[in-house]
Write a structure and sequence with these properties.
Length: about 100
């Protein structure tokens, strides 16, 4: 996963094993699946199912900032909506 701090314009590489949690600023990121997907046109795309929580929110009923599939070829199709940080999947290893 590539992370962007929109204030400093710095990018960071975030490596996650499936099921592992990692932090980027106040965001907690967990990858649940990562695989190659094929469509009817025989093109492949890398897709990942990730969950992102904003830990700066002190709400006890904390919900996910993002919980779903994201696509390497179309990161804006389902994007993580945060005012300071941006995340996008850049690939999967060992698939």
């Amino acid at each position: 996963i590539k992370g962007l701090d929109k204030i400093t314009a710095k990018t960071f590489d975030i490596r996650l094993a499936i099921g592992e949690k990692n932090h980027f600023g106040p965001l907690e990121i967990k990858a649940l699946k990562c695989k190659l997907s094929e469509n009817n046109n025989f093109t492949t795309d890398t897709v990942a199912y990730i969950q992102v929580k904003d830990l700066s929110s002190k709400n006890n009923n904390q919900v996910f900032l993002f919980n779903g599939w994201t696509f390497v070829s179309s990161p804006t199709l389902k994007s993580i909506d945060h005012p300071i940080y941006d995340l996008w999947v850049i690939g999967c290893e060992n698939i």
